[in-house]
Prior knowledge:
This protein is an alpha/beta fold. The chain contains nine helices and 15 strands. It has helices at residues 46-53, 122-142, 158-169, 181-189, 203-210, 225-233, 256-262, 279-291, 308-316; strands at 5-11, 20-26, 34-43, 71-79, 91-95, 105-109, 113-115, 149-152, 173-178, 194-197, 218-221, 240-243, 265-267, 299-304, 323-327. Helix content is 29%, strand content 25%.
Amino acid sequence: xxxxxxxxxxxxRFGGPxxxxxxxxxxxxxxxxxxxxxxxxxxxxxxxxQIRRGTDRWHERPRLPYVPGGLVAGLVSAVGAQVDPVxxxxxVVAGTGETGGFAxxxxxxxxxxxxxxxxxxxxxxxxxxxxxxxxxxxxxHAKIGPGDWVLVEAAxxxxxxxxxxxxxxxxxxxxxxxxxxxxxxxxxxxxxxAAVDYSEPGWTRRVLEATGGAGPxxxxxxxxxxxxxxxxxxxxxxxxxxxxxxxxxxxxxxxPAEARQRGVTVIGIEQLFDFGPHVAxxxxxxxxxxxxxxxxxxxxxxxxxxxxxxxxAAVENRTAVGKTLLLI
Length: 328
């Protein structure tokens, strides 16, 4: 009997999106403590585009060729030894580690399976699990209070669009910053009180105007670089400046003495390293908020598996709105 094969997309070298090439690989087999998921949706992150380029500084380089994708959603089709067969046929979001998601089937440790509540679509579930748990964690750490002014950078992105909604649900007022008319429209649709284009010079003046001259009490900085720096400079006295990303290429680094002098608490990007153990709890909170209609994940664009290169390009060149997903 021949080995059965499945469709995958592999990175054949490090470089631009064009290094992602459709191919075939043997079907995965569930080892002890593992499950095989028939993948319906594969997620992707900005960081994964940097890993593919070979420019990411935070993760070990995968051995070539590799199948990208660390998060999938679908049905459990097989389980290995020491795994409760109750998982069979369940709809799950599953973490596959750093690689393996851009495939028709993927293997995941049973501890990385998260049951998807009835009535929630798999694309929504994957967005809420990844970006939602991050947004929930950031919001918790930044201690948003009712009546606070919150500035969300990259507010039309996967994490940003959820931060806008969470902050609103916590009784805060929100300025969403993004680039270009289409994204500003999305930011307003998600409930921001004001939307500001940070590709325009002097954009922080608009932020100050929106907040009555005081500046935001909380800033969520997912961009870094000059934009993060400019946002820090208008943060209100006694405010919180929370760093979670560096889509500009450089994370914002604030001198502690300067932060003290300005009376601003800086929550650095290292906060993300402690998120792991809380992800399932935060994802559950987000999914119940979504079920209650308080938040809606923004799935801006979807691509079939063989167009994974186009999906990576959309995430990387900033044309994407919200979450980008592969549908398999």
